[in-house]
């Protein structure tokens, strides 16, 4: 039981030391993440269409 309590005490101690983002930072990072996901999704979609087109020409 003592090991479990020590573990949770350590978790609480580390949580206090870590830097938590503010609401403004969290919103900014979320928007950047969504934009990057959309960009790479579109990029790989275009690549897929291009390779399918090239495969159709070769075949």
Strand content: under 5%
Helix-strand sequence = HH
Identify low-pLDDT runs: none
Estimated structural class: mainly alpha
Helical content class: over 70%
**Count of helical segments?**
2
Shape: elongated
State Rg.
Answer: 23 Å
Describe the main β-sheet briefly: none
What is the terminal-to-terminal distance? 68 Å
Number of DSSP E strands: 0
Average of per-residue pLDDT values: 95
Explain how this protein is built:
This protein is mainly alpha-helical. It has a domain at 21-59. Helix content is 88%, strand content 0%. The chain is built from two helices and no strands. It has helices spanning 2-17, 23-58. The longest helix has 36 residues, at 23-58. The N and C termini lie far apart (68 Å).
Question: SSE layout and pairings?
Answer:
Elements: H1 2-17, H2 23-58
């Amino acid at each position: 039981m003592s090991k479990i309590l020590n573990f949770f005490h350590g978790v609480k101690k580390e949580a206090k030391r870590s830097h938590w983002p503010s609401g403004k930072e969290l919103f900014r990072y979320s928007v950047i993440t969504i934009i990057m996901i959309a960009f790479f999704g579109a990029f790989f979609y275009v690549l897929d269409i291009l390779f399918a087109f090239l495969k159709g020409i070769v075949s």
